């Protein structure tokens, strides 16, 4: 450690090429909040022994668990006759995983 480690920072690589600090503290275990479902993150640890005496370690890849889809747009009536109706719909705006099937409900 080249001294007493007095701060750890959990960071993630952003799409803009800069690192985003997710959490920081003195503990060697930290929890990250606010992650999105079914998303891959590259997370690393930076250790500091003084104010500007910090070094970043390698990153680890993690993928969060899937969640139910959200923001499903309503179906569109494409064609309607006296006995049939043909519907179309778009995928949810936030699939939160791999959509395996759709169900169309009639009330």
UniProtKB/TrEMBL annotation:
Annotated ranges, domain Fibronectin type-III: 1-67, 73-107
Gene Ontology cellular component annotations, sorted alphabetically: membrane
Transmembrane segment boundaries: none
Listed InterPro entries: FN3_dom, FN3_sf, Ig-like_fold, RTP_Phos/Ushers
Stated name of the protein: Usherin
UniProt source species: Chelydra serpentina (Snapping turtle)
Classification lineage: Eukaryota, Metazoa, Chordata, Craniata, Vertebrata
Originating gene: USH2A
């Amino acid at each position: 450690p080249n001294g007493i480690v007095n701060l750890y920072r959990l960071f993630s690589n952003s799409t803009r090429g800069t690192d985003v600090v997710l959490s920081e503290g003195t503990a060697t275990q930290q929890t990250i909040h606010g992650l999105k479902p079914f998303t891959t993150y590259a997370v690393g640890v930076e250790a500091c022994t003084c104010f500007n005496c910090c070094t970043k370690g390698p990153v680890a890849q993690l993928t969060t668990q899937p969640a139910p889809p959200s923001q499903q747009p309503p179906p569109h009536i494409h064609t309607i006759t006296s006995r049939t109706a043909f519907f179309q719909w778009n995928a949810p705006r936030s699939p939160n995983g791999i959509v395996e099937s759709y169900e169309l409900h009639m009330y």
